[in-house]
Amino acid sequence: MRQAGRSLPEYRRARRNESILDAVRVPALAAELTMQPVRRYGVDAAILFSDIVVPLVAIGVDIDVVAGRGPVVEAPFRGPDDLARLRPLEPDSDTPYVIETVEILVKELSVPLIGFAGAPFTLASYLIEGGPSRSFSKVKKLMLEEPGTFDRLLDRLADLSLASLRSQVRSGAAAAQLFDSWAGILSPHHYERHVLPASAKVLSGLADLGVPRIHFGVGSGELLGMMAAAGADVVGVDWRTSLADARERVGPAVAVQGNLDPAACLAPWTAVQAEVSRVLDDAGHLPGHVFNLGHGVLPETDPGILAEVVRMVHEAPPAPPRP
Ligand code: 1CP
After folding, report:
1. Environment class of residue 96 by beta-carbon count within 10 Å: exposed (0-12), middle (13-18) or buried (19+)?
2. Statement: residue 89 has pLDDT above 90
3. What is the pLDDT of residues 294-304, one digit of tens each?
4. What is the pTM (predicted TM-score) of this model?
5. Taking a C-beta distance cutoff of 8 angstroms, is the pair 264, 275 a contact?
6. Contact residues for 274 (Cβ-Cβ < 8 A; gap 6+)
7. Is-catalytic flag, 16?
């Protein structure tokens, strides 16, 4: 999961005070930052060091990633005129550094690399709110006030995410994760009407590449069935929904990913151990479970605890084959 590196002293040393957007443009550094948590924890896959706003910045949208806050948009999107600010992404010329980072990683890593992009709704929420938000009031207002503009915005963002993911997979990423972190703030009705079509466009647009497609959200328990039906092979689940319930919602053909509460990793080991056991039990010790946190690693997490979590999951009895 995101930001495993933040807990590591070697990460903080390598990052120095550089902005993440600058670090991403230096392939050797981005590759090193991707590999650090893999080396330290022995996890089974790496997630590319980048950010969901990288393709937007690459097509000229003025976004800064502010330390301790997140992405901040200089001139937030307000209406139909702003659609012209989103030209198509041409990965070869707009994000050559991402392609180069992926190419280095594919050579260096002994585990698969997961590429990723922000889902249309989560990207739109930053563009419209202007930055991280609690109420998401502006994005909801635009969705209801100008549904045509909103749908066109999401459709363009779908093209952007799809172009970015396709280039990462073409360069060697072995899986593609679509992060719809904030979709959980929507009612199922609005998700289905305004968001699902755009996310389905991204996921179905990857089908021919033959890599697993992971669809992740936070607080999205009520949306899991639709998130699976959008064309996902794996659906990410946070700690608010048990993996047993999640499995029922996504159906037998789709795997679940999750869902240890990142905050649980701040507790003493015996408490963490009980939480890890419960996640494994909820998943039924069956195939089709990718063990993960329900969201990003908290920076104050003790790396020793995360190493123990990985060891415990690796030592869990292997799942029996599917009947
Ligand atoms: O482990 C990694 O660092 C992997 C790379 C990675 C990924 C997968 C980063 C680096 N960002 C992301 C995805 C991302 N970025 C998501 C989707 C996953 C999630 O929900 O966590 C989101 C919503 C963002 C947006 C973002 N970027 C935030 C969240 C702000 C908010 O609205 O609450 C933040 C804080 C950032 C900055 C950022 N991105 C990545 C890092 C390491 C950081 C921290 C700042 C920095 O180090 O400069």
Report:
1. middle
2. yes
3. 999 998 999 99
4. 0.96
5. yes
6. none
7. no
